[in-house]
Amino acid sequence: MPSWLITGASRGIGLSIVQDLLKDESNFVVATARNTNAEGLQELAKTYPANRLALIKLDVTKPEEIVQAAAEAEKILPKGLDYFLSNAGIGGQAGGSFDDMDLDLFLEDLKFNAVDVVQLTRAFLPLIRKSEKKKILYVSSILGSVTVGGAWPVIANAYSVGKAALNMVARKWGATLKLEGITVAVLHPGWVQTDIGDGIKDWMAKYAPETPQITTKQASEGVINVAKKVTLEETTSFYNFDGNTIPW
């Protein structure tokens, strides 16, 4: 039974990933979130037994909760963790220029996307190393692409720099983890119908009118497909939700 752990699973893309994974009876899913009492997760907990779904409280910005969550996961994953999906995210500063950016919030973006992610991954690495699949997948954004980012002005500057930092963490760390047989990939889930995605509709209509806004289900299906198909030889690649690669 492949095991999956998803962070930020209480709503949006994360919740949709959990829902889709549970449709496959061969999967065991560990859903983590700051609020495991969220309606969507509680509905799933009523539907699926404990040998299919586990809920673990986890705020990825709090070191003590990371340690506790990893300890709880260890108890229920004796054969290790096959798929680690780092999906939790923050909206950051949607607009504005670097001239008037709130630097304290900018620092939060950088810490969340780079430092907190390293801390989180470290805690779960022992379980990942024990598993058969050994896959780590980070949900990032095309806005973190240095190549593509320059073509999208005045949008989520702090968020974009934070995601670029996340991408480099995955790129550098993944090169090392490959030597242990661990596959690392970065994923852009698409422009999704979420609170964050809806907040940039006006900008998208002006600067990227050809880009479709997809549903959380389309995004989650894409993320799961990439997670299953990516191989060790393709490690440290940057994928779009449709399986195509994105330039760094």
Automatic annotation (TrEMBL):
Keywords: NADP. It comes from the Eukaryota. Signal peptide: none annotated. InterPro entries: NAD(P)-bd_dom_sf (IPR036291), Sc_DH/Rdtase_CS (IPR020904), SDR_enzymes (IPR052184), SDR_fam (IPR002347). One of its GO terms (molecular function) is oxidoreductase activity, acting on the CH-OH group of donors, NAD or NADP as acceptor. Pfam families: adh_short (PF00106). This is NAD(P)-binding protein.
